[in-house]
Amino acid sequence: MASPQSPASSTSSAASRRSFDQDQDRPQTLEHLVNHFVASKRSLNTQTVLWRANELVNTARELLEENAVLAAKNASIRNIVEQQVDGLEAVRRGIDVVEAEVETEFKQLLHDVDTSFSGLNSTLAVLRETPIEAVLQPPGTPQKHLYDFIDSTAVSNLEGTLRACIDRYNEARATLDDSTDAFDTSLDNLHSSITNIPVTPLTTDDPSPIPSLYHDLEGHAKEAAQAFQSLVQHYDLCVTALRHTEGGSAAATQATGDAPVHSGDDFSAPLEPMSEDERQEMLHVLRKDAHEVEDVVTEIRERGAEMNFLLEQIESHINHLRNEANALSRVLQMISHITGEVKGHIATSRSFHASWLDDTRPNLLTGIEEWENQREFYERFDLAYAELLVEISSRRRRHEKAKRKAEEAQKELDRLHVEDERAREQFALAQGDFLPLDIWPGLRDPPRQYEVRAVSQQREEEGLHDEEEGGDAVGVQSIPQLGRNVVERALTRVKRRM
Fold first, then answer.
1. Which Pfam family, any one, appears in the UniProt record (predicted)?
2. Is the Cβ–Cβ distance between 378 and 154 less than 8 Å?
3. Which of 1, 71, 136, 277 could form a disulfide with 230 if both were Cys (CB 3.0 to 4.6 A apart)?
4. CA-based diameter of the chain, in Å?
5. Would you kindly state where each structural domain of the chain is located, as residue ranges?
6. What are the tens digits of pLDDT across the range 428-454?
7. For 298, phi and psi rounded to 5 degrees?
8. pTM exceeds cut of 0.85
């Protein structure tokens, strides 16, 4: 009845062998045979272990099938999750790209706006600090500056327009930030859930230990069945030996009771003839196997316990797979929920970009252009005023020069008039007595007198002359006399901006 033994039974096996060696030469009495029979019959109670082993194998086989399904399903879902997460992160990066591009250009345009506005304010400050020369204004006029002659409402209106534009941009940006924050929170929760997915323990050689565990469990079941078969054979041998021993059947029935537990437990069946040598050989085998019954029973029970342990490992692995499958299912639900929200995030990003292209960007560019134009205009205004002062000074010089020329001409005309009077008087004294007055009506007329005077622009354009109108020319408005330092400052400004 030799069969494989587990290491746990090695000690009892050694003790049994020593006992067997001591009993080898002892004669097998009826009492010995009955004891062997009772022990063998009791050993058949290990059949419950085989029943349990059968249940364990069936359960393990079902779990083996479930393992294949869950392993494939979990691997497939992990791939799907990975692809979906990659897609969601790609969308998030795309939103970041749009936001970054807009933000970069917005900061540059905002810098350009500030630069233009600062330049305009600098120009306006110059206008505020540049007084109008008093000689250019009517007497009693309050002191004015160049700034008093411009329309400042255009500047303030444009400033208000740009501030409102920037406020709208900030509102759109805040809406986008809220959307991206919600998106980031969803992705963080998703990554956290993925990180917390139970990881099923794997072996180094096989992605799943269950096939190997099942193989070992099935092997233990087969070995236990073979061991139990050896117990059945030993039991049948005990029955046969008792039947071939006088009084054996009665002694066995008395020892075990009348209720048989095995088909071989039938002492009333006809006996087959057996020689004494065959009987002794049978008793020798019986005596040898009887010492191994306890070891075989122990082995069957140990294999049953090992099968329970293996099934626990299988169930533990399956539970890991089930937990992993449940966690992956929850992650898929999260992905489905986030995917539904992504449309809103994309729409917010598009709205932000459209607002930038249609509102913020063109308004900022227009504002920069208008402020540059205003700054250039007001700089030209300041330069024109400086050139006006220079022009007034030049006009004053030309006026003085013309006045001197007119005075010189007037003196020459007056001298010629006096000379003409004297010449006429001398002619009248020398020839007047000899010439009748009616020979020429203008003989005794005084010389014509000429006068140099300023002519008004209006009379000059109308082609009128003093002699035709019989009156004096209307005098032109006098050109103011500017201080030398005023003119020099004006020249300096003109040269600096040329």
1. ATG17_like
2. no
3. 1
4. 221
5. 1-396, 453-498
6. 899 888 888 888 888 888 999 999 888
7. -60, -40
8. no
